[in-house]
Design a protein that fits this description.
alpha/beta, Arc Repressor Mutant, subunit A, Rossmann fold, seven-stranded parallel β-sheet, four-stranded mixed β-sheet, 10 helices, 37% helix, elongated
Length: 259
């Protein structure tokens, strides 16, 4: 265990590891563990924040989601884990529903898992998802238009925003860069956040499928409070303490099978 003689870089590496594991840290706890002052810990957290690792919050810090990478790279990461989430999410769909499937690589895995013989109206702003779903002969596929965000992988802006406001959805599966019980559902793109807020306002059941690294982390722009999400689909080994906090916020939890 590190003590007061540890170098700042060593402490910050240890703090980063704790953030990756738990999603948040408390300055007073870190000070006691490392045998240094809270002022020293706050300086460490400030350095980590400057490096883009975390955001300072009252009493400590919260992890910045690792999901802020190019969509083409995200599509190659954690594919088996995303496929497990995809199967769990697809199993929730019911015949003749109108469902919005938001842009995102986890949601693309959901599209791959949807039963092609189930009659559905499936709406998306993501060309890759629309292409994946186009193999069905019984499903009505609606692709929203507008400016294509290459970072998000979907259409955003005024056209897509106007179109989504004209449809009522039985269920939406919303993409999330980060999901935390206190900070709620957050993303890295301003226009994406605005689009998702409009989407949730038109949806009955709101579902978010989140990999472990997105739990108890934060992105820049707020979409919804944790309590506004009806159901979270999580990995088989998601941290139990974080799931308990999410349940206490009124969110139903569906645990995916092992990849």
């Amino acid at each position: 265990m590190l003590d007061h003689d540890a170098l700042p870089e060593e402490r910050q590496q240890a703090i980063h590891a704790k953030l990756l594991k738990a999603g948040r840290v408390i300055a007073a706890d870190l000070a006691a563990e490392f045998g240094v002052s809270e002022h020293t810990i706050r300086r460490d957290l400030g350095d980590l924040m400057a490096a883009g690792v975390c955001k300072r919050v009252y009493g400590g810090a919260i992890l910045i989601s690792p999901a802020q990478v190019d969509v083409s790279l995200r599509a190659t990461l954690n594919t088996e884990r995303k496929d497990a989430l995809g199967r769990a999410a697809a199993a929730l769909l019911k015949a003749n529903q109108c469902v919005f499937l938001d842009a995102g690589t986890t949601n693309l895995a959901i599209a791959r898992a949807i039963d092609r013989e189930m009659p559905l109206t499936l709406v998306t702003n993501a060309p890759a998802i629309a292409h994946e779903l186009s193999t069905s002969s019984v499903q009505d596929i609606i692709l929203l238009g507008g400016r294509l965000s290459r970072d998000v992988g979907g259409a955003l802006g005024i056209t897509a925003l106007h179109q989504v406001q004209q449809i009522s959805f039985d269920q939406c599966i919303v993409g999330a860069c980060a999901f935390d019980v206190k900070e709620g559902l957050t993303v890295f793109d301003f226009d994406d956040a605005e689009f998702k807020r409009a989407l949730l306002a038109r949806s009955g059941v709101v579902v978010a499928a989140v990999t472990n690294e997105k739990l108890s982390s934060i992105a820049r722009y707020a979409v919804a409070a944790c309590s506004e999400v009806s159901m979270a689909i999580v990995e088989q080994d998601a941290p139990s303490d974080q799931l308990q906090w999410i349940r206490e916020a009124g969110v139903d939890i569906v645990v995916a099978s092992k990849p």
